[in-house]
């Protein structure tokens, strides 16, 4: 028996059994109460992506950003050399302590009353220190996020101190993070620069879209025509599989006609690029064997790490997070990941591919945002209660099926069914 999900918080009826259908009630996309539940039951309890270790390579390097809707900052401690993640709030009266998006610092000083903290979070100075007992310095440091761990340079945090460890949480997603990092000879970095944009649609629509192979041909028709105009042979088509990876994570892995800087040449890159890419491919084969080299170089991956991290390892590698601002609003942030010592000409091709397809002004992203906002608008029309997410239930999941979305929704329902003690 397959589960047909009806995850509606307002009714308390979240699932029934049926052999052929998997449905999601549209109230999950429109109900403000569902959104409020998600903040408490999903974003406050799941492991969430903070950033990459390459962003804080040197002692004192820091970046600040919202994670799970909360302001935090990540800094490499000058004494310990470890990556710390702190709640971005002064322990005195609450003001934001880290006030710039990135940089290098010896200390962080709250501008309100000039309380001063070092990169390990210790309170190291305050005006009128004699007004406090000495032990206050030990008790009033910055608050670290409950749990912080890193997997192959990807830094995650969790606000729930009782959560299982990151390695266990990542489950089968680790294999696909390994493919990304191994393809770069184990040393990747986030390229400087951040893309930030928003959409007037529910965040879970973007979850579905990010691992959806079914929409590509119809929604991104203009991009495929552009590739044809540059000499790409689309006759080979797209073929692959979708997989549930445990804990709500999922992947769409497939072979497609476009090129990849690591390490699949196509006419778009130009004839002069062919020797470079062939050398990269030969190096992968020597190190990992032909089978794994083929998987790294030729196969594309859209990886979802529940709840809100997507790594697209396609014609470039994008790291993208999204956070709901309400039932019908989402903030999206994206970065480009690349090998650290990549040849300049290969880096340029990667950035071109990233911006051309994945950037906010590229071929794909505006198409996707328009489609998802159109869905959100359509929900308000009424008349139809359920979205159907049944594609491929009667066969082994293929690249155009929806098993990866069902994996997300099963975990979503389990989290939303959990009682949280406030």
UniProtKB/TrEMBL annotation:
The keyword Coiled coil does not apply. Keywords: 2Fe-2S, Dioxygenase, Iron, Iron-sulfur, Metal-binding, NAD, Oxidoreductase. SUPFAM superfamilies: Bet v1-like (SSF55961), ISP domain (SSF50022). InterPro entries: ARHD_Rieske_2Fe_2S (IPR015881), Rieske_2Fe-2S (IPR017941), Rieske_2Fe-2S_sf (IPR036922), Ring_hydroxy_dOase_asu_C_dom (IPR015879), Rng_hydr_dOase-A (IPR001663). Residues 48-146 form the Rieske domain. The keyword tRNA processing does not apply. PANTHER family: 3-PHENYLPROPIONATE_CINNAMIC ACID DIOXYGENASE SUBUNIT ALPHA (PTHR43756:SF1), CHOLINE MONOOXYGENASE, CHLOROPLASTIC (PTHR43756). Belongs to the bacterial ring-hydroxylating dioxygenase alpha subunit family. This is Rieske 2Fe-2S domain-containing protein. The lineage of its organism: Bacteria, Bacillati, Actinomycetota, Actinomycetes, Pseudonocardiales.
């Amino acid at each position: 028996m397959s589960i047909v999900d009806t995850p509606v918080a307002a009714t308390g009826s979240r699932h029934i059994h049926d052999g052929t259908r998997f449905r999601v009630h549209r109230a999950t996309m429109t109900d403000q109460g569902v959104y409020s539940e998600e903040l408490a039951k999903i974003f406050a309890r799941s492991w969430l992506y903070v950033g990459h270790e390459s962003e804080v390579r040197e002692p004192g390097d820091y970046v600040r950003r919202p994670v799970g809707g909360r302001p935090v900052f990540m800094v490499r401690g000058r004494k310990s050399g470890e990556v710390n993640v702190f709640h971005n709030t002064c322990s005195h009266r609450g003001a934001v302590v880290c006030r710039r998006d990135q940089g290098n610092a010896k200390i962080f000083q709250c501008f309100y009353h000039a309380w001063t903290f070092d990169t390990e979070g210790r309170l190291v100075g305050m005006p009128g220190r004699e007004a406090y007992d000495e032990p206050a310095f030990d008790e009033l440091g910055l608050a670290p996020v409950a749990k912080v761990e890193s997997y192959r340079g990807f830094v995650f945090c969790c606000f729930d101190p009782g959560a299982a460890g990151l390695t266990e949480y990542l489950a089968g997603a680790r294999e696909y993070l390994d493919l990304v990092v191994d393809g770069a000879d184990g040393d990747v970095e986030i390229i400087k620069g951040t893309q930030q944009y928003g959409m007037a649609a529910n965040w879970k629509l973007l979850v579905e879209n990010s691992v959806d192979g079914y929409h590509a041909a119809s929604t991104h028709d203009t991009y495929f025509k552009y590739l044809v105009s540059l000499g790409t042979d689309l006759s080979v088509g797209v073929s692959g599989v979708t997989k549930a990876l445990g804990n709500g994570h999922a992947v769409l892995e497939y072979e497609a006609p476009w090129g990849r800087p690591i390490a699949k040449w196509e006419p778009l890159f130009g004839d002069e690029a062919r020797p470079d890419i062939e050398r990269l491919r030969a190096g992968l084969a020597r190190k990992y064997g032909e089978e794994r080299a083929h998987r790294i170089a030729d196969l594309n991956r859209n990886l979802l790490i529940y709840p809100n991290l997507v790594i697209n390892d396609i014609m470039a590698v994008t790291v993208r997070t999204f956070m709901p601002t309400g039932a019908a609003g989402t903030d999206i942030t994206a970065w480009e990941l690349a090998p650290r010592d990549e040849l300049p000409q290969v880096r340029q091709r990667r950035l071109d591919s990233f911006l051309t397809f994945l950037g906010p002004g590229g071929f794909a992203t505006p198409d996707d945002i328009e489609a998802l906002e159109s869905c959100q608008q359509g929900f308000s029309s009424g008349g139809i209660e359920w979205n159907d997410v049944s594609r491929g239930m009667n066969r082994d999941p293929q690249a155009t099926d929806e098993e990866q979305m069902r994996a997300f929704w099963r975990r979503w329902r389990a989290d939303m069914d959990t009682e949280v003690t406030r």
